[in-house]
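CHAIN AND CONFORMATION:
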Amino acid sequence: MKAPSFARHAHSAADVHPELPIAGPRRHPHWLNRDRVRLYAAAVLLTELLFIAIYLTRVLLSRHGALEPLSQDFSPVWSAAWLAAHGHGANAWHFPALFAVQKLAVPTMTLADGTLPWLYPPTMLLFVLPLGWLPYTLAVVLWLGITIMLFAATMRATVQRDAAWLCALAFPGAFLTVIVGQTSLFTATLAALGLLALNRRPVCAGICFGLLTMKPQLAVLFPLALLCAGQWRALAAWAATIAVSVALATLAFGIGPWLTFMHVIGNVYAIVDAGHAKLARMPTVFALATMAGWPALVARGLQLLSAAAAASAVVYAWRGACSYALRAATLACACLLVSPYLYDYDLTWYGIVIAWYARYAWTHGWRHFDREWLMLLWPMPLAGLAIVPHLSFQFMPLVTLASLALLVSRIARERRDVPSLPDARDTSTETGFTHPLRPHHRPAHGLRRTGRPTLGAGR
């Protein structure tokens, strides 16, 4: 019997473009389900809290400064803020004056333990100045407490799943930032907020990206992404934020701090270039080559290639049509491959990559080993302290490069085979950009726009 014409051609358009497989408990249950994610994250968070409690107890009970206090890297932040609050902001980049104030914050600190200079531009000093009016202990608790809660809230808003709260609070990158006392939770929150706001509030996003220039080695690719996407309002807000913050910092502290800052940064890069930095904790291609014993010229060349690959990935992701979640994850990942000066606590930005890719996979379908890759990425910031020193091999930049390659390949597959259709509830993943979208956007077979399997949708 000859089939009716409408039956013969019902799926002709669908056959041209393969569909995403429906992932989930109905067909292919994965061992890393929601309950296990919550269980593992809760166990890790409990372990981290126990570590902090035990260490603080030992510090309080120890004599003669036998143990270093936690969050010691925050001392230059507070010391610079203290100098600025007392009218001596220009001295923040002069280490003798800074160290004298650091001794007030951490009396057990000595030069034998190494130096902790102030390496931020004057715009950052203007931002943290209010901390100088607070006692050191209160300032560090408020700074780290507020930034980790903002980071967790931003990750929850990105993933749009309740379990993201627990995963963000237990994230080893956040834990490392807290025990070290760095500013990476702040920079990661700014980047994540900007990426969340870009489509609906481009001016707010541009302000967030402009504030990121407080740590310029992480911010260089954001204007490139905005330029590729044609986000002119965000780009204008980015430029205006930089101009206003530079003007205010110059009015507050003068021209001298800018000149001193550039001189200090030049010295820092000279130290890194000579291989005298803590290379085991630097997840850069330059550190990989230097630890491997390769010549400095080769290490510099490889770092330039890494930066070029990162910029190319951003152009590829942000010029063409693809899901916004993949764009955001690619940009955050690429920012970690540009500068030779990067430390393991900066891998807090892995949280942005994980959050956006998880959001994408939940609305478009999980591929094989996606969850395993995210699970590997989650504890990776601790490798600089726990693994690399024992291996004498800096493998962390390879993880970042592999993650960037995976994201680019997922974008390529989406453009080649599968339409970019977000879940109906996922309005912020729409690009809102000026580039033409593909004309064959449609739901995957067996999925309504709510992402649930439809009844009677079998072939």
Notes: DSSP finds 22 helices and no strands in the chain.
